[in-house]
Amino acid sequence: MGKPSPEKTPIREQSPKERIKNFNEVPFGYSPEEAILEAKRCLQCKNKPCVKGCPVEVDISGFIKAIAEGDFLKSIKILKEKNILPAICGRVCPQEDQCEKVCTLAKIGEPVAIGRLERFAADWEAEHGKIEIPKRPQSTNKKVAVVGSGPAGLTVAGDLVKLGHSVTIFEALHKPGGVLIYGIPEFRLPKAIVMREVDYVKKLGAKLTLSFVVGKLKTVDELLKEFDAVFIGTGAGLPWFMNIPGENYNGIYSANEYLTRSNLMGAYLFPEYDTPIVRGKQVAVIGGGNVAMDSARTALRLGARHSMIIYRRSRVEMPARIEEIEHAEEEGVEFNFLTLPVGYHADSKGWVKEMECLKMRLGEPDASGRRRPVPIEGSNFKIPVDAVVVAIGQSPNPLVPSTTSGLETGKYGNIITDEQTGKTSKRGVFAGGDISTGAATVILAMGAGRIAARSIDKYLRTEE
Amino acid sequence: MNNILRKEVLTPEIKLFELECPLIAAKILPGQFVVIRSYEKGERIPLTVADVNKEHGSIIIIFQEVGKSTAYLGTLKKGDEIIDVIGPLGKPSEIKIFGTVVCIGGGVGIAPVYPIIKALKKKGNRIISILGARNKELLILENEIKKFSDELYITTDDGSYGKKGFVSDELKRLINEGRKIDRVVAIGPSIMMKVVAEVTGPYEIKTIVSLNPIMIDGTGMCGGCRVEIGGETKFACVDGPEFDGHLVNFDLLMKRQAIYLKEEEESFAKFKKEGV
Ligand SMILES: Cc1cc2nc3c(=O)[nH]c(=O)nc-3n(C[C@H](O)[C@H](O)[C@H](O)COP(=O)(O)OP(=O)(O)OC[C@H]3O[C@@H](n4cnc5c(N)ncnc54)[C@H](O)[C@@H]3O)c2cc1C
Ligand SMILES: Cc1cc2nc3c(=O)[nH]c(=O)nc-3n(C[C@H](O)[C@H](O)[C@H](O)COP(=O)(O)OP(=O)(O)OC[C@H]3O[C@@H](n4cnc5c(N)ncnc54)[C@H](O)[C@@H]3O)c2cc1C
Ligand code: SF4
Ligand code: FES
């Protein structure tokens, strides 16, 4: 074999012009030939830096080797040993900060396209109807309640049923999947894939109860009377606002509301679906993370002539995945860096019409190591807008913590959880994912779920 | 689950369902609401629980057909199932001994005020109820509320029943007569609640209103239901829906209620033409 190509095997995608008119997924995925070609770029390094770069330590070189050999079934089996949601992680993990960042090839060119290969293997398995359901083990007669059906909850549920425990997932919304279903748009993560993964967990034997708001219909304390243990994976669903004048004018949304209307409620298909959404022509999205990119790209697809990112730092500090930033740029999203909104102006009917901003400059590094943005006094200027999406972050919803006795929480309302075990301050109650860490990533939520499942199993067997 | 056990047509536009929801029935308190989604492509809409039947494990909802979702809901029959009924949501009403409480219901707002009247009366308060409707035909729950009221006054916009005028006129009359009023609870159209709060404001009579902004989840995750209370932003679905009427920014509430007027019209017209 000759020297590997310095670049990733390109992936076929919908053209930017075409795709901003629809909500279909942007990349088409590799063909088997392309996947094999890409897999053959892998050097099969002895020290496997990629594996150490993966939060759940997937045997990356192993699954890639299987693809290179054309044994796709084997590759998905290797993936699933560590990652129960490969079709999802292949699409949404920040690979450039994890496995691909430390890939040996990244030193001389582009890393192996680990994410794309992961996605390929998972999609291949689904397309070929090869999804295997392991046999149900002997029942342990232990019952576990899982609160929330995001990646953390799904992982815990899947792992625990495989160990013979009886698991019921309680989900507040009318559809399962957490952020995967209500937050991340169809063009980035098709909902059919999320439903496939949820189905898999159901086929394993987990029960799923939707439209059940824990803390309201039943508290965790009440669940503990019916179940031997409870896992809380309720995510970080409380949207932040900036508390600046005029923020409640018509047309100003939290990203949670904007994306929930569009994704969960199908507002992008209004009037076929009943839930409406403001289809702004001049949309400003405040923030620089994945949530902001998803909102700005949704706005384009809803017909915005100008979809603008308003970010108070500069491009390099944006926390979004590189792929999302690139896709947003290709699609014509306009980036306004070093810009801080300070207020809004409305028309007589209360509709937002202008956003007032300040220019910023970068100062000394702050606690996060990024240079702190400092407002430039007197630099006020106005941007005409008819819709605004505030995507500056979210924190845990207090509904469950505030209704559970003896549960310790931290500064942002996060449940204090032992990272090694998923244990909380309350006996028999475990937690993980965004509810413990604050808004993070799918793979970290999954990893936390896996750890919690292990210690819940131990607790159920030994009461420890 | 969520079967319609009973359906009543209270007025041509207002319907009552008794829904089989044993878990919710076991928990719900006066002032709380549920969110309903009645078919796959439907909206999530909030409706207050007007009564509970613990024996049947059922809850009563009373709704006015004002647009597509409520009109579609109104086409459902006894025995039909509603796909999602989510609750109990919101904070319950404060039920204590206050003394004399004037309870005001306007239009379909009479439904949510009914369980509060019942609970306040059982607690030992003296209840003066004022009910208002556009005309006699549209007045609901008169007999039920009479049972729990020490005094009951009715107003209609056209004078076809009770006194001609608004509920706020009756309230003014009571205040002018020098009646001792310890608390007012008012539920109805935003403009009615606003006027009531304006009437009681100068007399510093504590006035509780139940706000009805547009909601989606009802659990505090979207912020669509935000309202301004004493200059502070609150999420009505979790911090309310009841608030101190003297602190509410009603103008903002009414503007936000009108965000989707155009879409609502379009959706309703389409429904009338082609159904769902
Ligand atoms: C728009 C958006 C884009 C993102 N993009 C990416 C990305 O590209 N890559 C990435 O890795 N991460 C991304 N993230 C972050 C990632 O989605 C989250 O870190 C992850 O979903 C957290 O998983 P979780 O299981 O902890 O919680 P969630 O996914 O938030 O799930 C929690 C679930 O619990 C339910 N729940 C809450 N309260 C209750 C209650 N009281 N009773 C019952 N159920 C309840 C919720 O309805 C929800 O379904 C994104 C997040 C958003 C919002
Ligand atoms: C806490 C709460 C309790 C309520 N209780 C009752 C009740 O007991 N009986 C009753 O008849 N009505 C009640 N409502 C109002 C009821 O939810 C709306 O009338 C209903 O959503 C209208 O939907 P539609 O599609 O039929 O009409 P649309 O044509 O969609 O809307 C008509 C008007 O209703 C309001 N509305 C629309 N969508 C929503 C929504 N998703 N959430 C809230 N308001 C909306 C808007 O102001 C709109 O202009 C309550 C509202 C709230 C917030
Ligand atoms: S670091 Fe990159 S090249 Fe080396 S084994 Fe991992 S994926 Fe292959
Ligand atoms: S309805 Fe979504 S936060 Fe209140």
Provide a descriptive summary of the structure in words:
The complex is a heterodimer of chains A (464) and B (276). Chain A is of the alpha/beta class. Helix content of chain A is 34%, strand content 16%. Chain A contains 17 helices and 16 strands. In chain A, helix 9 links the parallel strand 1 and strand 2. In chain A, helix 5 packs across helix 8, helix 9 packs parallel to helix 11 and helix 14 runs parallel beside helix 15. The longest helix of chain A is centred in the last third of the chain and has 21 residues. The radius of gyration of chain A is 23 Å and the shape is globular. The mean pLDDT of chain A is 93. Chain B has 276 residues and is of the alpha/beta class. Chain B folds into two domains: 86 residues, Elongation Factor Tu (Ef-tu), domain 3; 158 residues, Nucleotide-binding domain of ferredoxin-NADP reductase (FNR) module (Rossmann fold, 3-Layer(aba) Sandwich). Chain B has nine helices and 15 strands. In chain B, helix 2 runs parallel beside helix 9 and helix 5 runs parallel beside helix 6. Chain B is globular, with a radius of gyration of 18 Å. Classes of the chains: A alpha/beta (464), B alpha/beta (276). Bound molecules: flavin-adenine dinucleotide (2 copies), iron/sulfur cluster and FE2/S2 (inorganic) cluster. Iron/sulfur cluster binds next to helix 3 and helix 4 of chain A.
Whole-number total of structural domains of chain B = 2
Shape, principal axes of CA atoms of chain A: globular
Q: How far from one another are the termini of chain A?
A: 53 Å
Pair with the biggest interface: A-B, 40 and 41 residues
How confident overall, as mean pLDDT of chain A?
93
Query: What fraction strand of chain A?
Result: 15-25%
The CATH homologous superfamily of the largest domain in chain B: Nucleotide-binding domain of ferredoxin-NADP reductase (FNR) module
Percentage of residues in helical conformation of chain B:
25-40%
Order of the strands making up the biggest sheet of chain B: 10-9-8-7-11-12-15
What is the 3D shape of chain B? globular
Over all CA atoms, what is the radius of gyration of chain A? 23 Å
Please describe the biggest sheet of chain A, giving its number of strands, its sense, and whether it closes into a barrel.
Answer: 5 strands, parallel
Task: Give the integer mean of the pLDDT values of chain B.
Answer: 94
Oligomer: heterodimer
Question: How many strands appear in the DSSP assignment of chain A?
Answer: 16
Structural class from helices and strands of chain B?
alpha/beta
